[in-house]
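A quick aside before the break. I want you to see a complete sequence-to-structure record at least once, exactly as it would be stored in a machine-readable document. Don't worry about memorizing anything.
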Amino acid sequence: MPLTVNFIGETAEEIAVISLARAMMEKLSEKSREGASGWETCSAVNLSNSLREHVEKGDPVDVANFCAFLFAKGTNIAKDCFPPVHVSYGCTRVKPLDQPVFQLSARIKQLVEVYGSLRAVASALDVDAGYLSRLSSGKKENPRYELLRKLGLRAVTFYVEASDRNG
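That is the input. The structure line, written in tokens, reads:
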């Protein structure tokens, strides 16, 4: 809710900041009542990705809250966490799926290029480096939702019509 009261001695900038801070606290209180918590334990990469998602949604209060979380952690917005990459491995993009399809190993390789090493990726995502290595090599599959989220991915299952109804 925009602040319309003009305080004596405060500039328009100060009024804007106070107004935004109040809106931020209201939103955080609302989300807390809904059970949201835990930003303190999120990595800068996860917070940065969430910030980018909320920029796309268009709510400046949510964007400001994610900026505040990063500021409170003493970190900058992580640069190019998940730059767009199109990975082709013989899979045809289905009409409703408007996003690129990734192999898990390709996403991990992409992050290694961004962070410089698998160990640095594991540290940034707060994940065991050995487990990440096994996922990258294909020795492990089907990571849990939490790890997919840290990797900036989500699992999508879809079905296509078979040309032969018998199989």
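Two observations worth writing down. The two ends are 58 Å apart (CA to CA). The helical segments are 12-33, 44-57, 60-72, 104-115, 118-125, 129-137, 145-150. We'll return to this after the break.
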